[in-house]
# Entry
Amino acid sequence: MTTETTTDLFLDVRGVAKRFGDNVVLSGVDLAVPRGSVVTVLGKSGTGKSVFLKCLAGIVRPDAGEIRFEGHPLNAGDADCRAEFRRRCSYLFQSNALLDSLTVLENVALPLESTTQIPNREIRERCLEALRQLDLEKHSDRYPGQLSGGMQKRLALARAIVTRPELVLFDEPTAGLDPLRRNAVFEMIVKYQRQFGFTAVLVTHDLPEALAASDQVALLDGGRMCFQGTPADFNASDNPTVCSFRDSSGELRETIAALRRGETIQNRNDL
Amino acid sequence: MLRFLGHYTLAIVRELGDFGVFTGRSFSAAVGSRKLGRRVVRSIYEQGVRCVPVIVIVGLFTGLVLGLQGYYVLNKFGSAGLLGTLVSLTLIRELAPVLAALMLVGQAGSALAAELGIQRNSEQIDALETMGADVHAYLISPRLIAAVLVFPIQTTFFSLIGLFGGYLSGTVVLALQPGVYWSAVFHAVHPRDVRECLIKAAVFGFLTIAICAYNGFNAHRRKSASGARAVSASTTRAVVISSIVVLAADYVITSFLV
# Structure
């Protein structure tokens, strides 16, 4: 686990729990996010990674636990602290969640119009600048439905960074993308993280890319964070869950080879 | 049985409370909201301009049928000259506000509930919240303000088209003199009737759009359905409840104003 003290941490999550009816999704999740770092939360499908990220963003209210933002508790009913957090934080949805009735430019302008008193002309300039950085300037008058999947992802990123946030939460930013686009999205995240200096928390399944792009990785399993450390620590860890996740591609190759040899393989029960 | 009734009553009270808070927040959120005027104009277009064809068609046929039925009934008593009175008072006091509201529920209300439900399903509303935007100010307030402005205009338009429909039935199709029809209309309608009509229209507009917005906005809270089914169930619920509330509110307002 990390060695930062609480005061060094930009975001400090302790014992976050969430259940939906009888389904316990999170049962005491801890995560330490140092300022200016890229922290990736890994885990199998259905382990509650997106729910955890939504708890951080305040979209889902945790049943228990504490989330501290620069040392201030977010879930203590302090509306001002929550509003301050939202002002300094952006969230990139897995589905992009672009407003389909607004143009590209209007989508990017929305967070600035909603949360600042910046004059309209300046908002337009800042939005065009963000679109230019993401090669979307030519498409500013189009609607999200008229863009390709990769362009929509870039648009969502432009909207996320236009407010110059200090923390960006990425919910499976590469879901459904081919390997080339997946690499491009990770490159884009790291490039803009370096350029704008924000702290990033990512949720993804893409292990090689996550290990390459992150300063720290964490592994969520069974409703708890069973590992947090640097990519080097992850690769060296002998934690059985980490080993299983890390060695999954090797296991797949062995299983496929065994199936081709005609051997009987027991059905997996962890789908 | 008692337990069921108690549970059901509590659920209704809770929902009414939620609805009250939702509506109150939507109105209060309008204060100081940026670009509110632009969004109100867009809502006026959606609820007003796009609903004109349906208002014209329903208003015209309502007037035509009233003219026909009224003429034959009144003619039996030798009072065909009162056709203008019958058509104008029936339309302005009752039919125009109620039918226009029901048409607008079907057109603008259902569209609003479905739009908000889809926005909720596709996380667009969550996205607005994470941006720090006031979703009530952005999505609901302009629609409520537009409804209070547009519904009285639509209802007035419905009444005028209906009166013209009655005129067509009574004088063009049947044998009534145009002067007799319009004279009866002008003598029958008092400013009080017009005021009652406009008050009803504003109240119906507010109630229907608030109910439709509330149902669409909370589509994700439906326990019986999820995804596309939740959107369709919320839209249906919004239309049914709005229609019932329009009729119930009509009775209440009429009993106070008559």
Observations:
- DSSP finds nine helices and no strands in chain B.
- The two ends of chain B are 40 Å apart (CA to CA).
- The longest helix of chain B spans residues 83-121.
